[in-house]
Design a protein that fits this description.
The protein is of the alpha/beta class and about 280 residues long. About 40% of the residues lie in helices and about 15% in strands. It has a seven-stranded mixed β-sheet. It has a three-stranded antiparallel β-sheet with strand order 3-5-4. α3 crosses α4. The longest helix has 21 residues. It is globular and about 75 Å long. The N and C termini lie far apart (about 70 Å). Bound molecules: S-adenosylmethionine (SAM). S-adenosylmethionine binds next to loops.
């Protein structure tokens, strides 16, 4: 008997295979990509199929479940690098109002931007600190798992067509200057002043496996742990706790939280909405 075959079968089949693949990844490795936006997910999975030279998602799944190295490569493909300058402006407003005064109390302090992607967040913080007269007193360490984005971040060239949006973000984040002072428009994009990040240390660091590497007075990690399953989130909370000096600030942004984490009671909220926490013990 021939089984009924409907229209759009290939797409349906691909959808089934992707769902099985994500379920497999979740059960085997603990990474939860099941709620990723389907279109971008499909593109990234196809890219990995090309990379592994397999014809079907099921074949990729077979490889992946048996070989953690393939999982690592897919993880890099899946690491979403979407970012923006002064993204979620109210976060920067709160950082300016609540974290800057704390940083001012130190002659010298360190800020870790974990999961910095292509650098838009780093340049935003560098601008904010410059405006607060803290450039020389705060050293930024910017890290990401993905070396390619770090290389991009060092260049500080961002798409020109984003500048209108970023200018609005900057103003909503409490910026009082003319945003265009900070970049020059070139054929390849908006090139931000190199001196903004002269003192920034860019490095590769994997939050899932690497250890603490310094003592920080503030850590920002936004839109990164949302891609992590609970045990990995807890590992990272532990890492951040160990990496913070006493009274240091953990700045997570609205999408992440340390609530329900074993480390929750070691912090007090500086801003519950923007998820700024101060280490208190
Ligand atoms: C969506 S971007 C967020 C960028 C920026 N923090 C922001 O909020 O705009 C997430 C970044 O986290 C990085 N990432 C993913 N897994 C990571 C890991 N295990 N360790 C360090 N960075 C990771 C990705 O490479 C990506 O650049």
């Amino acid at each position: 008997m021939a089984l009924p075959v409907g229209r759009g079968d290939e797409l349906d089949l691909e959808q089934i295979e992707i769902e099985l693949l994500l379920e497999g990844i979740h059960r085997r490795y603990g990474f939860d990509f099941r709620q990723y936006a389907p279109a971008s997910l499909r593109r990234r999975v196809r890219r990995r199929m090309d990379g592994e030279k397999v014809e079907t998602i099921s074949a990729l799944q077979d490889l992946l479940l048996h070989d953690p190295a393939v999982m690592e490569r897919l993880l890099l493909d899946l690491s979403v690098n979407v970012t923006a300058m002064f993204r979620d402006p109210t976060f920067f407003l709160s950082f300016r109002e609540k974290v800057v005064p704390l940083l001012r109390t130190y002659p010298f302090s360190r800020l870790w931007v974990a999961g910095c992607s292509t650098g838009e967040e780093v340049y935003s913080l560098a601008i904010l600190l410059a405006e607060e007269g803290l450039s020389d007193r705060v050293r930024i360490y910017a890290t990401d798992i993905n070396e390619a984005v770090i290389e991009q971040a060092k260049h500080g060239v961002f798409p020109l067509d984003k500048m209108q949006e970023y200018t609005q973000n900057y103003i909503r984040a409490g910026g009082a200057r003319s945003f265009s002072e900070y970049y020059v428009a070139r054929y390849d994009g908006a090139r931000f002043a190199g001196e903004l990040v002269d003192g920034v240390l860019f490095a590769q660091h994997n939050l899932a496996s690497d250890a603490a590497f310094n003592e920080f007075n503030a850590i920002t990690c936004r839109n990164v742990m949302i891609y992590f399953a609970q045990p990995l989130q807890q590992r990272v909370h532990e890492l951040f706790y160990e990496s913070l000096a006493m009274f240091g600030v953990l700045a997570l942004g609205q999408k992440e939280t340390i609530r329900f984490s074993p480390r929750e009671s070691f912090f007090e909220a500086l801003d519950a909405e923007e998820r700024l926490y101060k280490k208190i013990r």
